Give the backbone structure.
Amino acid sequence: MPTTVLDVEQHLLLLELDPPFDKRDVQLARRRMAKRWHPDIAPAGRQFEHERHLKAINEAADQLERLAEGSRGGRVSRNAVRVSAAAARRERAEAGRRAYEAEQRARAAAKDRAENDPFGSRVPDHSVVHRYARCLSYPEWGVGTVAGIYFSADSRGDGEEVQQWARVKFSHGIRTVPAGSMKFVDFSTPDPAEERVERFMLAAQRAMAEGEYELAAQRLIYARDAEPRNVAVLRLMTLAFWQAGNLEAAARSVRDWARVDGSRPAAHRFAARIYEDMGAIDLAEEAAERAASRGPSDAGAWERLGRLRLRLLDREGSLRALRRAAALGSGEAVRELIEQALALEPRSAVSAA
């Protein structure tokens, strides 16, 4: 059996760490990668891939920590990493030579079998090489170029699985991705619309969870272009634009939402709030009226309608809406609004004056 050479450079690539480094640097890198590849944040069906990849990261971090502890001054220099990488490359070259010789022997045997048993197998010997891939765990990274495929170790027959991972260059940088989380991209055929919607919806939800509402809205635009009548996309895009403070874009989104799902009160309820924030009280009152008519048992919708009519000085209309809200069980705030509406002068008296 050949002597196993510790490939420090490969462990550093796995942890996305640059030399020189010490134990503290390794610990920080371990923590950063654990936050990214923890199984609890993995998409459905990808928990096992995240768990295996995190296990490989922890094993690499353990070896690097032991190496740093045994180094002079507790720090591994760049030159030491370079020497270790050279030794590992020589070991891989030797392993490649042995594999090449074994492949040549297998080819010779296959040639002999083809000459003496031409009908033994009709399956052609070919391979397909993929270059572009997408990470299913983080679809917002987009399509990246596969820079290299790596294996954790050779199979020693002791039951340990060989782990495969790749270095993929995305637009924002190079990332270490487990092979099970990659989906190779074939540009000859476009992605199905539902796959694009799911990909951008997941990315938008992650951005909104981090408070990046503008980025989430931009990703949801791509999802809407894939399926313009998807209610879930339009609803989430309206919320993203509204939270980002882009009220005009939120108003356009809620109008698109209302055109697709106008029979339900949710779109009109959002429209009323957005128009009120914009200062368009008349449009807000119309949207609130539509929301109340489509959800007649919603006390909050009638309360909002009455409050907006009160701002428009519509005494009779606000009283009708507020009394309906009070009958449905609204709180003390509705009684105060009713008192304010009763204090208004009727429109007929104002006209006569």
